[in-house]
Amino acid sequence: MVSDYSMADGIMPLDDRDLIHYATLAPSSHNTQPWLFTQGDRCIHIHADRSRRLLVVDPDDHALFISLGCALENLAIAARCAGLVPRIVDHLMDDPPTLSVYLDQAGQPVDPSDRALLTAMVERQSTRCAYNPYPIPVAHLERLKTASHEDGVHLHVAATPEAIAPFIPWVQQANRQQFSDRAFVEELMAWIRFSRREVRHHQDGIPGPGMGMPFVPRWLGQQLMAWFATPESQANQVTQRIHQSSALLLFVVDSSDRAHWVALGRSLERVVLTATQLNIRHAHLNMPCEVPAVRSQMQQHFNLEQAQPLILLRLGYSNPMPRSPRRPLNAVIQTNVSPPQE
Ligand SMILES: Cc1cc2nc3c(=O)[nH]c(=O)nc-3n(C[C@H](O)[C@H](O)[C@H](O)COP(=O)(O)O)c2cc1C
């Protein structure tokens, strides 16, 4: 039951489990959901679950920490909607690396922009289909830029054909290289859920329909990938996808360490939630950020020196695609991980 006081201030009756639920709606690389949660006294800890690492595509764990940053941002927004002030203390060098969110009472009205971001969390999805590349209104591009406000994280927006063009050879080259690497393809296939039964059983990973494939038995899905997901076909498909995009967004961090990766995740999540509010779809094109030789070409092109381009998104307009699953709260809330000392 929501009290009149709460209704007047826009405060939502969310408990700790609700806050964790919103955190788990965050995106994560290959939908690994590399997080575990523990509850303390007015505190929720987010722990890295390193059993869910992607050793081939993410050997330094940057994507894992970006995913944790996305979950942290969702949790912080949901806490503010519950009338709380989230205070974040990171223990990123602990084992397991942990982000602690202390929840102090606010007594402040809820900012309507937080309510709108919370609504967008439920709607947001990575949409991997072709887009209608209508131009994104300048005012909307400005809203996306201002949504990324973490220190040490920069957003480069390419919204014209001339600005998008240099990315095409980088994405092609990196894509060819990744799909020629057997270990990369095997790791990816291990996280594709080819059948309904696999989705129900794991409740993580990327369901075939989320990649435009029908549900099929695993043996057939693997065979289809071997036939059709060749380095050349993938490079062609991704080129088409870029031509069908309204804009590309490149996220760059000043320095490549865990704190910057988490900050990037927070910015990324705010940007994709804002895009969702504006009916703009997004999907990842991270390949050139993941292949070191191609990443250096981008660094040189943009004169980045030490700064690292780590996430590339394409944006556009389309209908939604089938959603990806999340593990239930009982699988991610732990009672046997000792919380860090503040
Ligand atoms: C750090 C990070 C890296 C990602 N890399 C890719 C990628 O290379 N290709 C891709 O299609 N999706 C990528 N994604 C999107 C995830 O696959 C997606 O978030 C996950 O499957 C859950 O689906 P959802 O975003 O629709 O909730 C990435 C997401 C994150 C947070």
Structural commentary:
Helix 2 crosses helix 3 (62-81). Strand 1 (35-40) and strand 2 (43-48) form a beta hairpin. This protein is α+β, with helices and mostly antiparallel strands. It has a 4-stranded antiparallel β-sheet with strand order 1-2-4-3, with helices on one face. The chain has 15 helices and 10 strands. 45% of the residues lie in helices and 17% in strands. The protein has helices at 4-9, 16-24, 62-81, 112-123, 138-147, 161-164, 167-179, 182-191, 196-202, 218-228, 231-243, 258-277, 287-290, 292-301, 329-332, and strands at residues 35-40, 43-48, 84-91, 98-105, 153-158, 192-193, 206-207, 247-253, 281-284, 308-316. It binds flavin mononucleotide. Flavin mononucleotide (FMN) binds at residues 27-31, 63, 66-67, 70, 125-126, 128, 206, 283-284, 286, 324.
